[in-house]
């Protein structure tokens, strides 16, 4: 089981919107040096929605190659087409990813049985550990705990990223009696500390993009049951948890990383650079966390 702080990595881009692979290499090395426990390549924060298939797989391949088995790499391979999700997951396995993260199908809004059959079909088609990803605020589709319980029995489905940010949902998932090897990850930095202290296994994190060492330390403290240390670190990061979402993710995170000198300023339409009205807010959050 993969535990700890798993960064939902941005995809660096130049001013034209082209993927900047040299910056990606440097970003991956920085995360390993800072103690990040795993990397999610080409998830929501990695702008998966606007990378074409060749770019998508090229980014995963580059991250896998640079990581060179030092930490786990989880490939974002979800789609609202079951066939496309299978194709991308097969490709991620061939590239060498350690697991795949599959967002619930967006826009077409399947019922719960459709979600169950979608994920079961992928698991039956690809021999790669699969992590479910529920983010109803993005997809318009909420995977309910009972569906998670059913899917946790399917061989090959090994975990869930729950990004609803709802403490009641956290409690409901923990009460399901899921198999011992089934991992629960927070997908909401603001509530991740409490979720881990209650029994979650880690955080797939936006904040870790700009404060990787502190997010690793926060998760490690929470996993060990050191609530006081986890709370102290979380307090230092609280402005980042909030202000990296003053505009849709990853707009603020990419602007912050550019300010830190880690990536170029590029972002791909229909996303645009951070509105100058928010520059002071994000800069102050970075300063409070000691990131600048």
From TrEMBL:
Name of protein: 4-hydroxy-tetrahydrodipicolinate synthase
Pathway recorded for this protein: Amino-acid biosynthesis; L-lysine biosynthesis via DAP pathway; (S)-tetrahydrodipicolinate from L-aspartate: step 3/4
Subcellular location: Cytoplasm
Active-site residues, Swiss-Prot/TrEMBL: 133 (proton donor/acceptor), 161 (schiff-base intermediate with substrate)
HAMAP family documented for this protein: DapA
Binding locations of pyruvate: 45, 204
Site (L-lysine inhibitor binding): 49, 80, 84, 106
CDD domains on file: DHDPS (cd00950)
GO molecular function: 4-hydroxy-tetrahydrodipicolinate synthase activity
Assembly notes: Homotetramer; dimer of dimers.
Biological role stated in the UniProt entry: Catalyzes the condensation of (S)-aspartate-beta-semialdehyde [(S)-ASA] and pyruvate to 4-hydroxy-tetrahydrodipicolinate (HTPA).
């Amino acid at each position: 089981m993969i535990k700890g702080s798993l960064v939902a990595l941005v995809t660096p881009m130049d001013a034209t919107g082209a993927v900047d692979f040299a910056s990606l290499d440097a970003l991956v090395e920085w995360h390993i040096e800072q103690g990040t426990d795993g990397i999610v390549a080409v998830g929501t924060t990695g702008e998966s929605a606007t990378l074409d298939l060749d770019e998508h797989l090229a980014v995963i391949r580059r991250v896998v190659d640079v990581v060179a088995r030092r930490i786990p790499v989880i490939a974002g391979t979800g789609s609202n087409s079951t066939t496309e999700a299978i194709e991308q997951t097969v490709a991620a396995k061939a590239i060498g990813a350690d697991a795949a993260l599959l967002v619930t199908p967006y826009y077409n809004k399947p019922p719960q049985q459709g979600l169950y059959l979608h994920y079961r079909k992928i698991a039956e088609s690809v021999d790669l550990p699969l992590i479910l990803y529920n983010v109803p605020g993005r997809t318009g589709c909420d995977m309910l705990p009972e569906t998670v319980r059913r899917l946790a029995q399917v061989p090959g489905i090994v975990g869930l990223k729950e990004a609803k940010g709802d403490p009641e949902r956290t409690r409901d998932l923990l009460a399901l009696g899921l198999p011992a090897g089934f991992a629960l990850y927070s997908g909401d930095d603001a509530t991740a500390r409490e979720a881990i202290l209650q029994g979650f296994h880690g955080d797939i994190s936006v904040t870790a993009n700009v404060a990787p060492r502190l997010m690793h330390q926060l998760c490690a403290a929470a996993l060990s049951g050191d609530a006081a240390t986890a709370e102290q670190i979380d307090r230092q990061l609280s402005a980042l948890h909030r202000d990296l979402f003053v505009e849709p993710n990853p707009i603020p995170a990419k602007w912050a990383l550019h300010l830190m000198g880690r990536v170029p300023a590029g972002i791909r339409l229909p996303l645009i650079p951070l509105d100058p009205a928010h520059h002071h807010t994000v800069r102050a959050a970075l300063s409070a966390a000691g990131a600048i």
